[in-house]
């Protein structure tokens, strides 16, 4: 296992068997997002995108929570403290940069991403979880938008991700009322892919992640782009054209040739990402 120094103890990273685990590490605050955490997460994802050793990314939280979203106590301290006031334009630009580097990158990075929820995912923390390709939840974990409770409209792409997963009517209900969604309800709604017992979360997460990490990374990259384009484009022929281009590219890879040979020989293929 390779441990990388992120420059802050608010984010821990570990690379093993092609799986990069990013752990939001403020358990005393239910892993609420700090400026240090955001910067480190953005930097780690940017590095992972170009690192061929990283074939799958797991995002999780330390302790009993996934991520409580924005640091409300920190917001209150800033609102009531002195010092130079940030202009609206500066705040908007900073927010845009942070969002694109974190939840935006999890959604677009050409590698499988998996969120493992040991506990609550709330607000922007929920958006981070929904930005990932798949999710696995501890049975005692919950999801909530939470924004209405603190007078916010929502950020980090949560409105986009939630609308795509559960439809507009349910997304509006969850945003307007800030209802808590249990793990079992999240599974029924399609917000999570798996639910497991709390003491099984780490093991089941790594089992799924290792399977993704040993899979056909070139094909995964194109699958993810195809699926993302299908969500954002209403043109079926545009989606088909992109699929055709990617499918032909995959046909030229060593992974594809080895996999077809393994199929004929009735054995498991070995994928090397080329």
Provide a descriptive summary of the structure in words.
The protein is of the alpha/beta class and 274 residues long. It contains twelve helices and ten strands. The protein has helices spanning 35-50, 72-80, 88-101, 103-108, 124-131, 158-166, 168-177, 183-189, 201-213, 217-232, 236-251, 254-264; strands at 2-4, 11-16, 19-24, 56-61, 113-117, 121-122, 134-138, 142-144, 181-182, 194-196. Strands 1-2-3-4-5-7-10 form a seven-stranded mixed sheet, sandwiched between helices. Strands 6-8-9 form a three-stranded mixed sheet. Helix 1 links the parallel strand 3 and strand 4. Helix 5 packs across helix 6 (158-166) and helix 10 (217-232) packs antiparallel against helix 11. The longest helix has 16 residues, at 35-50. The two termini are 23 Å apart.
Count of beta strands: 10
Stretches with pLDDT under 50, minimum 5 residues: none
Q: Please state how the strands of the largest beta sheet are arranged side by side.
A: 1-2-3-4-5-7-10
Tell me what portion of residues adopts beta-strand conformation.
5-15%
Q: Sketch the major β-sheet.
A: 7 strands, mixed
DSSP helical segment count: 12
Q: Give the radius of gyration.
A: 19 Å
Lay out the secondary structure:
Layout: E1 2-4, E2 11-16, E3 19-24, H1 35-50, E4 56-61, H2 72-80, H3 88-101, H4 103-108, E5 113-117, E6 121-122, H5 124-131, E7 134-138, E8 142-144, H6 158-166, H7 168-177, E9 181-182, H8 183-189, E10 194-196, H9 201-213, H10 217-232, H11 236-251, H12 254-264
Parallel strand pairs: 3-4, 4-5, 5-7, 6-8, 7-10
Antiparallel strand pairs: 1-2, 2-3, 8-9
């Amino acid at each position: 296992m390779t441990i990388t120094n992120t420059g802050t103890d608010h984010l821990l990273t570990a690379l093993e068997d092609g799986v990069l685990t990013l752990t939001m590490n403020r358990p005393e605050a239910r892993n609420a997002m700090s400026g240090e955490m955001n910067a480190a997460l953005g930097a780690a994802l940017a590095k992972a995108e170009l690192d061929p050793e990283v074939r799958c990314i797991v995002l999780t939280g330390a302790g009993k929570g996934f991520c409580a979203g924005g640091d409300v106590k920190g917001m209150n301290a800033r609102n009531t403290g002195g010092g130079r006031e940030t202009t609206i334009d500066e705040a908007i630009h900073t927010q845009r940069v942070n969002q694109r580097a974190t939840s935006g990158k999890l959604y677009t990075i050409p590698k499988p991403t998996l969120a493992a929820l040991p506990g609550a995912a709330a607000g922007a923390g929920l958006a981070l979880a929904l930005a990932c390709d798949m999710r696995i939840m501890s049975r005692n974990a919950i999801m909530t938008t939470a924004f209405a409770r603190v007078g916010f409209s929502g950020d980090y792409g949560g409105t986009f991700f939630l609308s795509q997963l559960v439809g507009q009517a349910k997304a509006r209900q969850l945003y307007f009322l800030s209802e808590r969604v249990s793990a079992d309800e999240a599974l029924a709604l399609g917000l999570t892919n798996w639910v497991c017992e709390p003491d099984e979360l780490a093991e089941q997460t790594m089992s799924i992640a290792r399977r993704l990490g040993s899979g056909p990374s070139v094909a995964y990259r194109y699958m993810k782009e195809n699926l993302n384009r299908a969500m954002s484009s209403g043109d079926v022929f545009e989606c088909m054209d992109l699929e055709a281009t990617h499918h032909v590219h995959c046909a030229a890879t060593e992974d594809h040739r080895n996999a077809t040979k393994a199929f004929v020989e009735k054995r498991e293929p070995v994928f090397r990402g080329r």
